């Protein structure tokens, strides 16, 4: 546990109870996901974590203390970076998610336009909203990193799913003040900056937050500006770019083993049928026809 969470963890079990422990975990450097199962009555904790941690006890009894806050682990709870956590549980199955603080700050900056918004050390659980949304986000991250090897290995898809999960978590827990700055609007120069960034980085696992930061604006302003300029969102614009690049790869390939599904997944399209529909609508032919040329 200490190795997984990169901090000193303590764990004690009640001696008159049977104790067992099992863990499945994975990390991609930006997010870590763990599924922890305990038999017996236990106590555990840590002085602090460097990551923002979210935990959810999906089975058993679970009580937690984070700073001065207390609660029941049956509802997801957050441990902000640098804050002490103590837990007591019996026969518990606990899911945890750790989010790199640098990545969380980038997402927060893209939402608020404020690169220096501090993390809130207290009260994030008292003022939480939409716990069911956070539960779904944790489950999605667990499925992506622990179960779905295809999604785990598709960098473009993984980046989108991870961003959606972090936005949901930040919207539910006031770890960062997302409304600190008013929306100041965006000029056409910002749109051009965003388009240039999209064209240069379409092959990378970028998100709408990355584009907003590159254009020096917020995601809200960026969405509004793209709808005015192109009648589409930045991600729809990026999807069109990736469709075009997928076509270029299909046309250029001489590898008889290459499949349409492989190309679609590489360019961020997880549903082969939907990819084929979008491709045909854009280019007037099925991608398999392009591949056979």
Briefly summarize what is shown.
The chain is α+β, with helices and mostly antiparallel strands. It has helices spanning 2-5, 101-112, 131-147, 149-153, 155-172, 188-201, 208-215, 219-230, 234-252, 260-266, 272-283, 287-292; strands spanning 9-13, 20-27, 31-39, 41-46, 52-66, 69-72, 77-79, 85-99.
Describe the protein:
This protein has 293 residues and is α+β, with helices and mostly antiparallel strands. The protein folds into 3 domains: 2-100, Jelly Rolls, CATH 2.60.120.10; 102-235, no CATH class; 237-292, Homeodomain-like (Arc Repressor Mutant, subunit A, Orthogonal Bundle). It is 46% helix and 22% strand. It is built from 12 helices and 8 strands. Strands 1, 2, 3, 4, 5, 6, 7 and 8 form an 8-stranded antiparallel beta sheet that branches. A hairpin with a 2-residue loop joins β5 (52-66) and β6 (69-72). α6 packs across α7 and α6 runs parallel beside α9 (234-252). The mean pLDDT is 88.
Q: What gyration radius follows from the Cα positions, in whole Å?
A: 22 Å
Instruction: State the order of secondary-structure elements, H for helix, E for strand.
Output: HEEEEEEEEHHHHHHHHHHH
Domain module count = 3
Whole-number mean pLDDT = 88
Low-confidence stretches: none
> What percentage of the residues does DSSP assign to strands (E)?
15-25%
Helix content: 40-55%
Keywords:
single chain; about 290 residues; alpha+beta; Arc Repressor Mutant, subunit A
